[in-house]
Amino acid sequence: MMAVPQGSRRLSALVPWLMVAVVGCQAPWPPAPAESSPALPQAGPAEAPGPEVTPEPPAEAEPAPEAGGQMAGGGGEGSPPPAAEPPPAQELPPAQEPPVPPGALPAGPDWQPLAEAVARAASGFSGRLSVVAVDLETGDRWEYRATDSYHPASTIKVPVALFALAEVRAGRLRWDDPVRLTEADFEPPLGALADVPPGTEVPVGRLVDLALRESNNTAVNALGRHLGWGRIRAFAESIGGGFDRGPLAIPRAAAAWWLHLWQLSRTAPGEAELLVAPLREATYRGRIAAAVPPGVEVWHKYGSYLGHEHDTGIVLGPRPFLLVVYTGDGQPGEADGVIVAIARGAWQAFAGPADAGPAAGGGG
Would 2 be classed as within a structural domain? Predict the structure, then answer.
């Protein structure tokens, strides 16, 4: 700050106003809560973290005009100084966007509703969260902490199903090939397989459908054993969505699984429909599905496991988009509302304000 000329009482009175204006223009965006120490190791080298993004700096107030010596109207030592008028309110320069939450890519105008929803969610959430959104018409994307590691929970069923379909398309597997269930395969929720005894043979296609439609753990365990988890991981890495043996995955990898399915739905729609149908008709309609207006088509796969609460999928609104929201370490039941709020921000970014369904909770 420049020096105040001797005898300038009016300028001295003006300085506090200028300091308030400058401080007011530099108020920081509410920071995301500090991450807890990860209880799990970081994901392996299958997906290298992207470059660290420096958050956009807060706008600075314009400097005060320099005083030209003694200001007119100044009286003598015994005269009271004239009343100082408050300076005009300072505003951000028109081109300056509001800051984005730490760890996020800068958001252009199209992404601003999503960026603001994520900033609000991160500031009020007791755990940690990550977001990836992709405009499926242009390929543009917005990310927030997209390389943090999480247990993928049941979202891992998507690459398992994609690999099964890839094997069928390559002629190495048939959709009606039988898989014999073992005692070790059975894990709640059993769903449609609750009354099926070990030793029963179930077709590959039926297992894929149950894994996606009702998030059946027995089905995905049998598929993983039959197809080989090592081969599934290698396939996932080949499409840009690698995960390690933990299993641990990053949200950017989950986005790659859905991008692969989206591309298949464009180039081989008949075959892709084998996966799209159960994802579109999934029995669970919370989280992303609860955030969009009734009647909007959503393909999604949620996951819930030991404090890791996620939803991932594709929303076929006026502009189709992909959304991945991973969370960890929050309070029980807290993540459902966070995911719905973020999904509503994404919907607003792509389709504008709209009334959506209730914030349905509950995962599995």
Answer: no
